[in-house]
């Protein structure tokens, strides 16, 4: 999952989960709080029953009372209810007191209120000073029945509903807020930890990679499996590492090639210079006294100077090719006609040197390539000269084969010589390589020919390679010109 998507979901969950849990907890918490509030209210009401509540309790079901005797039985039940609350009971039936358990204090309180109120008034609730009086009056069979409850030591407990509700709500909200903070902290902590792990692992991997590169180690691997934005970053980082490694390897190889180039130049120039120096000293010292010997010395000096000139020219050409500054002159030519012309040229040039040439073309008559004819001539001629030079048979054979593939043309130059050791094939196109590690045969060439050939072919967008097949075969692959490009 993408980190952007993961962060979005995480942020949403950080809001949704706490809200849902808070609502659930608030709902659950409301139950015990409500019960606690109701319990407190009931307890206070039990200790200080409201006068109106007492009045409601003094209303018997008249269906169960048929005569005066039924009302006489009522006080026992009511007194059990009223006594814990400090009330005493008086029941009158048609102006006659049929039941009473009032105390002297109750009587004094009634006297202060007025006895007429007991018999003449209707139902009432009266709280005066320390007296609470509750009266229910009703008729039964045209008889007036009064049920009176009096408490002459009444000390009301004031129940402030607003204050109690406020205290309840504040306590409830406070606990919900505390629990909400805990829930939010836990939720955010859990989700943040998961996101942190998803971020810290690739960051530590990238930090490790940067540390390894800083220390010069380019052989590690960036293995990151998660499918998120960091996968692309780690992939790009690993690709950068590989390119940097290739660059460093190429630089090391380039430095090694430079060293070999310097060694090769030093050796290949020293040999003719030593010879020139020796022959010049011979002339100076008068060793060559006869005109014939002097002419021989001078011819040798000239030959060695020409060899040096050829070597310097090749070095100059190789240097320009290697730096990519050589000015090629490309032409679109018919490859079959070009190779047939080259075949005729080398056949005439090497006539009488025990070399037989063969040419075979399976290429279309209209197949065209884009090449620098002069430089490609240099490549092919160098290959042929090497085949002639290193041929160990009495009668050499050089076969030139031309054929085409879907988008390329292939030129193969094969000889029937002894070939090249398999471990040396990969070094054929390395500068100054001659298959002669001691370099004791300078007459066999400078070792730059095939290196130059490789640079020229690659500058044409082609490829050159070698392999053994009853001798050595050099294979050159060049891109064809498409039909649209040839128009």
From TrEMBL:
Q: Which CDD domains does this entry report, sorted A to Z?
A: HAMP (cd06225), HATPase (cd00075), HisKA (cd00082)
Asked if the keyword Hydrolase belongs to this entry, the reply reads no
**Cited Pfam families:** HATPase_c, HisKA
Query: What catalytic activity does the UniProt entry give for this protein?
Result: ATP + protein L-histidine = ADP + protein N-phospho-L-histidine
The family database entries (PROSITE patterns) matched by this protein are listed as: HAMP, HIS_KIN
Q: Which InterPro entries match?
A: HAMP_dom (IPR003660), HATPase_C_sf (IPR036890), HATPase_dom (IPR003594), His_kinase_dom (IPR005467), HisK_dim/P_dom (IPR003661), HisK_dim/P_sf (IPR036097), HssS/ArlS-like (IPR050398), Sig_transdc_His_kin-like_C (IPR004358)
E.C. designation(s):
2.7.13.3
Q: What's the protein's topology in the membrane? A: Multi-pass membrane protein
Could you tell me which residue ranges the HAMP domain spans? 197-249
Q: Which GO terms describe its molecular function?
A: kinase activity
Q: Where, subcellularly, is it found?
A: Cell membrane
Q: Where are the transmembrane segments?
A: 12-33, 169-191
Q: Where is the Histidine kinase domain?
A: 264-482
Keywords for this protein: ATP-binding, Cell membrane, Kinase, Membrane, Nucleotide-binding, Phosphoprotein, Transferase, Transmembrane, Transmembrane helix, Two-component regulatory system
Output the PANTHER family linked to this UniProt entry.
Answer: SENSOR HISTIDINE KINASE CPXA (PTHR45528:SF1)
Q: What is this protein called?
A: histidine kinase
Q: Which organism is it from?
A: Clostridium gelidum
